[in-house]
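FAQ
Q: What does a multi-component entry look like?
A: The components come first, one per line:
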Amino acid sequence: MIDFKKLAKEYETPLYVYDFDSMATQYEELKSAFRGRKSIIAYAVKANSNLSVIRHFAKLGSGADCVSIGEVRRAFLAGIPAYKIIFSGVGKSDDEIREAIERDILYINVESEAELGRVELIAKELDKVVRISIRVNPNIDPKTHPYISTGLHDNKFGVDLSTAKRMYIGANNSKNLDPVGIHFHIGSQLTELEPIYEAAVIVADLVRSLEAIDIKLKFFDVGGGLGVKYDDETTIRPYDYVQTILSTLTALDMTILCEPGRFLTANAGYFATKVLYEKQNGEKRFVIVDGAMNDLLRPSLYNAYHKIEALTESKAKKRAVDIVGPVCESGDFFAKDYPLPPLEHNDLLIVRSAGAYGFGMGSNYNTRRKSAEVAVENGKARVIRKRESFEDLIALEQEFLED
Ligand code: LLP
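Then the predicted structure of the entire assembly, as tokens:
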């Protein structure tokens, strides 16, 4: 049990707290579902890019799935070996591509024909052969929130099957490109297996048709997307997930690569925030807390549900309340009509499932400092990012201030 009251006292609020033991349990559960099969779990760094979080996964043997050169640098700094780092994303700049090639990562995941051209040109300039994978868009509806659905032709990600095939043939004929992988990622917070199965079947068929023309790929990259319980969702069991993927790979000898983010970190993270005030606007009850949408954007952006627990002695009846922050936007809320007992100044609220896409999507809106982040491991807490100071926030502006 994490003693949030103690942590809040010691490190102040708002505060992110990560249970490193729970992250390890999630990693091990997924890894053991792959037992006996060649596999790489490449942690999707975007879910929580704190260096110590990445290091934690590095120590467990994880690779890293990165979507900017900044994330690639973080992965290196955290000790992920180059041969387990992949670099994806629809809009890589020339500089990013160049650095990824120079760093000799496992592969660059290419998302368009135009990008393949740039990668080839830059590899040629550097006189290198670069390993690539192509992200295929299988046109499958993942049945998740539209903002985090990525595997339909309506979405900007990947290329259609015939384009992919043409790209593989081109890459195979190039002196500077080595096509080693194939990738798909149909969306995030997936709670149904069927769309994953359908996508994997389509992509595995493409792999077979490439083998028929002597293009042999080594990595079958199934992306991320494994959903977690925010409320009472039924989620996919890692064992079933792996078996489903394997069932599509008959007669193919490939290393399966997967890129989980949320599955590894979401439910290991907590956002602790203190009650500032309660107020009543007519019939409507509000509790105003010291955390805000700049700290945890998911409720404002996706209307996402997060469980919230009030650490209060009060035994009084729970009543519906909107839990809101100090930011000047009506969209600044953590929950609406949430049942909570009467609250007092300084009571602590714990927002659950905040370990993925929490801190990382934060901002300094309203000149608010980003929270500190604390890791709890084997019963011991340690800071893994200190709270920003006002000076940090203005550091890049101050020198330009004119008289
Ligand atoms: N691989 C690729 C290519 C991705 O685009 C993503 C997530 C992942 C892996 C990791 O997905 P995960 O296992 O975490 O579902 N901000 C949104 C989620 C955006 C996901 C973007 N891509 C949220 O807060 O729900």
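Q: Is there any commentary attached?
A: Sometimes. For this entry: The domain at 34-260 is CATH 3.20.20.10 (TIM Barrel).
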